[in-house]
Amino acid sequence: MSNLAISVTDLSKKYGAALAVSHTNFQVPLGTICGFVGPNGAGKTTTIRMLLGLITPTGGTGQILGESITSPEKYLPQVGAMIEGPAFYPALSGAENLRVLATLGGFPQERVDQLLQQVGLADRGKSKYKTYSLGMKQRLGIAAALLPDPKILMLDEPTNGLDPEGIQEIRQLLRSLADNGTTVFVSSHLLSELELISEYIVMLRKGEVVFAGPIQELFDQQQPYMIVKTENIGDLEKIMTIAQSAGHHAHIRDGAAHIEGPADWAGTLNKLAFEAGILLTQLSPQLPNLEETFFEMTGEQK
Amino acid sequence: MIRSITRIFFAEWRKLRRPTLLLGTLGAVAFFSILVSSLLFLMIDSPNGNGDRGIRITREMLSLPSGATQAFSSIGNLLGIIALCVFAAQTAQEYSLGTLRNLLVRQPGRIRLLVGKLASMKVFAIIMTLVSAVISIGVSYALAGGKDVNTTLWFNSDGRLEIAKTLLNVFISILGFGIIGMVLGILLRSPISSISLGVLWLLIVENIVGAVKSSTLQWLPGNQLGTIAVGGTESVSYTHALSLSGLYVGIALVIATVLFTRRDVAN
């Protein structure tokens, strides 16, 4: 069996003339956490829906756990998913909602109580779903996704509506699931959170993959830079000239010079600034992070 | 295959058995059963008639073996409308709540899902039928003595056969209405729209069309299903109503199945 959890080749979805997902190619290895990012409307949810057999691709192929996405019945028993937020029956309790899905999937009913405990809803399991807060609904959605004890967990914005403590709990939960061999494919707008937990990244823009691979590979493609502030703001132009003379790209933004270059060039820059009579008040080398990289690669505005 | 349909059946039943839905529906069933049965006997001497559209159902007619189920069979239309509302709401809400995607992730066999849901709703329809029959026959029996209606023939072998036949006919009628509700739910994907359209058609459009041109009653789907419940009428025979209803329901089911299995679940 292949060591890939998800593999898609030229996957496309067209609605009328509009191409929602265009010739998408990516692979996600088993047992990893893969962040799935992209601006709103980039095609993330459409892609997840195609992987779950909810919508039919107009082109390309895909495999989940080695099975074609045209036969979802072969792999869905091993997949847990929460797509576009939680969706349950308002008049049923949280526990009863999970029991409906447990019955449908043929999972043991005892799992319902275990999962309610795991997501912190044990004391509210008997309350009607319509009385739940957004965070509680989200937790119930995650519990539902965990019902099959999945090999692959696909979550679409799982931290929506959660407070910082809840976000941290979900992060820990996903980490522990991945440590136990579950592949987690998670889309989120909380890029700093994804950066903390993801080993792989698939980045979409306007229906096309702009990057797919290990997150470190993504960062390696990015130039490190440093942020420089001077005592006299008029000296920023001189700093720019010094940097450019040394062959480094530089620009001024938000009252600071942003200079591309490795961290070990900071000492040289400091010396050159001192020799030019410029007093630096800040010189901080920056490593690329997912948020910066995302904005750069997707062309989105901060 | 059978095992997965059984699981779908019980999953659907968890939703159908919730007290507000089950007891609420049975409450409505009980109300209409008591109302129609009581009016049939209490207005037995009314010059305006005691049956549907001013028809007079006399003591002699009520004393026949079919007397016990006379009221029950005429409730068929009302029970059908209740079934249409329940089936339509239960189906359409899967779209409007977004729960269909959960169901399909857990059970990707869409035809199986439809069959299992329908099987569960059939049981719901059977319960509705039985509750209505017990209440209606009970009320009829209780009121018959006070209105000099002879009940001797009601529970002899002919009477029991009539009860069984009417139970079956009312059940077929309710099921037909329910399936139409389910199909509307799949087509319109909104509980309010599917219930409104179904009730509007059955209660208003068919009545107006039938009143303006009575020959259309032979073709209107709601009238065929109502005719099955009463075992046939003077204007529409039972066999005609049964075969035409089967055709209508069959076509509707095919359209709904094709849509349900092929349509993207994008909400």
Structure report:
- The complex is a heterodimer of chains A (302) and B (267).
- Chain A is of the alpha/beta class and 302 residues long.
- Chain A has a six-stranded mixed β-sheet, with helices on both faces. A four-stranded antiparallel β-sheet of chain A has the order 2-1-4-5, covered by helices on one side.
- In chain A, helix 2 (94-105) crosses helix 3 (110-118) and helix 3 packs across helix 4 (134-146).
- Chain A is built from ten helices and 14 strands.
- Chain A folds into two domains: 4-215, 3-Layer(aba) Sandwich (Rossmann fold); 225-286, 2-Layer Sandwich (Alpha-Beta Plaits), CATH 3.30.70.
- Chain B has one domain (2-262).
- Chain B is 75% helix and 0% strand.
- Chain B has helices at residues 2-16, 19-42, 59-62, 70-74, 76-96, 99-106, 110-144, 157-188, 191-212, 221-229, 238-262.
- The longest helix of chain B has 35 residues, at 110-144.
- The chains are: A alpha/beta (302), B mainly alpha (267).
- The interface between A and B is medium-sized, with 32 and 28 residues.
Oligomer: heterodimer
Distance between the termini of chain B: 27 Å
Structural class of chain A: alpha/beta
Could you say which structural class the secondary elements and strand pairing of chain B correspond to? mainly alpha
Proportion of helical residues of chain B? over 70%
**CATH architecture level-2 label of the largest domain in chain A:** 3-Layer(aba) Sandwich
Helix-strand pattern of chain B: HHHHHHHHHHH
Count of domains of chain A: 2
Mean pLDDT of chain A: 89
Shape of chain B: globular
CATH top level assignment of the largest domain in chain A:
Alpha Beta
- How many structural domains can be distinguished in the coordinates of chain B? 1
- Count of separate DSSP helical elements of chain B: 11
Strand line-up in the sheet with most strands of chain A? 6-7-8-3-9-10
Query: Could you say which overall geometry of chain A the principal axes of the C-alpha atoms support?
Result: elongated
Q: Characterize the biggest β-sheet of chain A.
A: 6 strands, mixed
Order of helices and strands of chain A: EEEHEEEHHHEHEHEEHEHEEHEH
Poorly predicted regions of chain B are none
- Which fold name corresponds to the CATH topology of the largest domain in chain A? Rossmann fold
Average pLDDT of chain B, rounded to a whole number, is 92
